[in-house]
């Protein structure tokens, strides 16, 4: 195949160069991709490389990529092109490609983009500092090994100061949904050891975290042994974390309907620090499509599961993921997805057009759906999801709720934070990043709620 080449001016074996002094990490994917980006930044900082200030050139740019849909994956080539042609910054930087595209297409990237010095997969990025040393000598280096646990053992201590933090507890996926690349880019399911997680959570809290979100591709598949050797699942880990002083909020994402355990559901009714929010993707409301997707659950079993969460925690806010236009999806089957949305009334949701991914079974299935049909279905689905999100936000108006302040708003004196239900809330007044404040909910928008600092606080 004749692929376009980017940055071809630089030779395949590069000239030795100076060790970069500044870096920029750009993350394009899911929350775990963001977590990985933060960890890479910490490693670069340990190596004495500092983050390039906003708007200034970086000597090293790490493109932390996502392979989940075609659009996301293709983006890296245009980004590389812009970096080498001086459109993103004045001087062309050293480029490292990390993340799931690096894992899936490492060799292709090296062949197609000679300006790339380093390709590093999501399970190998603990080796990034050594790879950079080689790149400085002029070598082009690729590492897409999958020693998942080894990675965590050799990452530096957490230091970043932020009121909210991600903590990867589980990684990889054994589910093999027929449309999805994750089992290939992230490898088999692994759980990080309990004591490591408690230790990392403590460090995060010392560094100022008041909210921790536990991450995993299938976070509720996590299992481990506590310090007395007893088997623990995610519910038990959450109960242990809830005992840590200084931590006020616990969240987890993303769960899979088939790994749900009773104790996690019960924890929602019993652990105050566990926030009333559940992201549980269903993808489709039709059983034939679910089967073709290899989801191994039905629309009805999913609804029954949600019911159990609602019994444990009646105010729980629900969120999900949907794919429209999976190969062979008929209009009637798509309407089953609309029906499940009507039934659940999600507080938030993510919906996507099916994107055929190389190497996945669905990519070669018959009856791929035309783009216009997908566009139409996505629009109809999103109209309902937006309606429900707006309704959820309006339901908050008149209430007072705790908001954890995460950052400054667009205008002076404005603050942005999250409600317990993960609603974005903005308000004006006397506050600081990291404060937990009482806010009266005043006006609902589609994506956020405007509030006002409560007089009672
Ligand atoms: N592990 C999680 C989510 C993984 S990817 C889970 O199983 O729920 C996040 C979302 O991207 C998926 O839930 C799905 O809705 C969407 N997705 C994955 N592969 C896709 C594809 N080939 N085309 C369109 N959307 C896709
Ligand atoms: Fe992908 Fe399915 Fe695994 Fe989620 S459960 S990561 S959608 S294969
Ligand atoms: Fe994307 Fe990889 Fe996450 S493909 S969604 S960055 S696991």
Overall description:
With about 450 residues, the protein is of the alpha/beta class. It has three domains: about 20-145, Methylthiotransferase, N-terminal domain (Rossmann fold), CATH 3.40.50.12160; about 150-390, pyruvate-formate lyase- activating enzyme, CATH 3.80.30; about 395-455, Nucleic acid-binding proteins (OB fold (Dihydrolipoamide Acetyltransferase, E2P)), CATH 2.40.50. The chain is about 35% helix and about 25% strand. It has 13 helices and 21 strands. It has a six-stranded parallel β-sheet with strand order 2-1-3-4-5-6, with helices on both faces. A hairpin with a 5-residue loop joins strand 11 and strand 12. Helix 8 packs parallel to helix 9 (about 260-270) and helix 12 (about 330-345) runs parallel beside helix 13. The structure holds S-adenosyl-L-homocysteine, iron/sulfur cluster (SF4) and FE3-S4 cluster.
What's the arrangement of secondary structure elements?
Blueprint: E1 22-27, H1 31-46, E2 50-51, E3 60-65, H2 70-84, E4 94-98, H3 99-112, E5 116-120, H4 128-136, E6 141-143, H5 148-153, E7 164-168, E8 170-171, H6 182-185, E9 190-191, H7 194-206, E10 211-215, E11 223-225, E12 231-233, H8 234-242, E13 249-253, H9 262-270, E14 277-279, H10 287-292, H11 299-312, E15 317-324, H12 331-344, E16 348-353, H13 371-396, E17 400-408, E18 414-418, E19 424-428, E20 436-444, E21 448-453
Helix pairs in contact: 8-9, 9-11, 12-13
Bound molecules: S-adenosyl-L-homocysteine, iron/sulfur cluster and FE3-S4 cluster.
The overall average pLDDT, rounded, is 93
Number of helices: 13
CATH class category name of the largest domain: Alpha Beta
Report strand %. Answer: 15-25%
- Record the strand order, biggest sheet: 2-1-3-4-5-6
Rg over CA atoms, rounded to whole Å, is 23 Å
- CATH level 4 superfamily of the largest domain: tm_1862 like domain
CATH topology of the largest domain: pyruvate-formate lyase- activating enzyme
């Amino acid at each position: 195949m004749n692929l376009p080449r980017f940055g071809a001016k630089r030779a395949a074996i590069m000239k030795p160069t100076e060790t970069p002094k500044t870096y920029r990490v750009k993350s394009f994917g899911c929350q775990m991709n963001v977590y990985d980006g933060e960890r890479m930044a910490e490693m670069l900082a340990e190596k004495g490389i500092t983050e390039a200030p906003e708007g200034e050139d970086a000597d090293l740019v790490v493109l932390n990529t996502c392979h989940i849909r075609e659009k996301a994956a293709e983006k890296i080539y245009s980004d590389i092109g812009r970096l080498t042609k001086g459109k993103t910054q004045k001087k062309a930087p050293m480029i490292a490609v990390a993340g799931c595209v690096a894992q899936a297409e490492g060799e292709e990237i090296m062949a197609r983009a000679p300006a790339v010095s380093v390709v590093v997969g999501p399970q190998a990025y603990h080796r990034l500092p050594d790879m950079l040393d080689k790149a400085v000598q002029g070598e082009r280096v690729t590492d897409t090994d999958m020693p998942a646990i080894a990675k965590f053992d050799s990452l530096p201590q957490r230091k970043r100061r932020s009121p909210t933090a991600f903590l990867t507890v589980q990684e990889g996926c054994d589910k093999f949904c027929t449309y999805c690349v994750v089992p290939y880019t992230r490898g088999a399911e692994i759980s990080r050891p309990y004591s490591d997680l408690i230790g990392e959570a403590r460090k995060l809290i010392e560094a100022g975290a008041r909210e921790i979100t536990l991450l995993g591709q299938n976070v509720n598949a996590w299992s481990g042994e506590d310090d007395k050797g007893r088997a623990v699942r995610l519910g038990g880990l959450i109960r242990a974390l809830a005992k840590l002083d200084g931590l006020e909020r616990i969240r987890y994402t993303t769960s899979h309907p088939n790994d749900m355990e009773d104790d996690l559901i019960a924890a929602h009714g019993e652990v105050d620090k566990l926030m009333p929010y559940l992201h549980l993707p269903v993808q489709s409301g039709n059983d034939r499509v679910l089967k073709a997707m290899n989801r191994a659950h039905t629309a009805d079993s999913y609804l029954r599961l949600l019911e159990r969460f609602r019994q444990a925690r009646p105010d729980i806010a629900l969120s999900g993921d949907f794919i429209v236009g999976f190969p062979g999806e008929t209009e009637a089957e798509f309407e089953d997805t609309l029906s499940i949305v009507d039934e659940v009334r999600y507080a938030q949701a993510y919906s996507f057009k099916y994107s055929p991914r190389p190497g996945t079974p669905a990519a070669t299935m018959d009856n791929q759906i035309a783009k216009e049909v997908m566009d139409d279905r996505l629009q109809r689905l999103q109209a309902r999801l937006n309606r429900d999100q707006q309704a959820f936000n309006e339901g908050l108006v008149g209430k007072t709720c705790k908001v954890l302040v995460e950052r400054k708003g667009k205008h002076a004196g404005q603050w942005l934070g999250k409600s317990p239900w993960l609603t974005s809330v903005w308000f004006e007044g006397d506050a600081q990043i990291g404060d937990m404040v009482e806010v009266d909910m005043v006006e609902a928008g589609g994506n956020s709620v405007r509030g006002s600092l409560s007089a009672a606080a």
